[in-house]
Amino acid sequence: MDLLESIAMAEARGEGTLGMAYVMRVVINRSIKDGKNIKEVIYAPGQFYTEGMGLEPSEDCHEALAMIMDGWDESQGAIFFNKYGYRSGREALFQYGQHYFSK
Q1: What is the pLDDT of residue 63?
Q2: In degrees rounded to 5, what are phi and psi of residue 94?
Q3: Long-range contacts of 44-49, Cβ-Cβ distance < 8 Å, separation of 24 or more
Q4: Would you state the pLDDT for residue 22?
């Protein structure tokens, strides 16, 4: 749980509760898809901004984790997000804030 909060703070601290919940769901979705644990997904080379981890989780972040733990999933199966737009070759799903989600 700490890793999910930490990566959400690193990647989406300016995106509010919902933005952080989407980032957490991407990690979980990818974990399920790839059969890897949360740590393996987060620390896979070049996948997430792990250098930004270590910030104290905000109240929004705690709320996002609570949503995830309660079963919230409006991610449409997203396994990627990018702040520069949708990547070619990926199925574009939706944009939330500055992040573009795809699978």
Answers
A1: 98
A2: -165, 165
A3: 48/7, 48/10, 48/11, 49/7, 49/10, 49/11
A4: 98
The tally of CA atoms less than 13 A away on the side-chain side of residue 78 is 26
Model pTM score: 0.95
Q: Which candidate, 37, 14, 18, places its Cα nearest to that of 83?
A: 14
Compute the distance between CA of residue 59 and CA of residue 68 in angstroms, rounded to an integer.
14
pLDDT in tens, 5-51: 999 999 999 999 999 999 999 999 999 999 999 999 999 999 999 98
Q: How many CB atoms lie within 10 A of CB 23?
A: 27
Widest CA span in the chain:
36
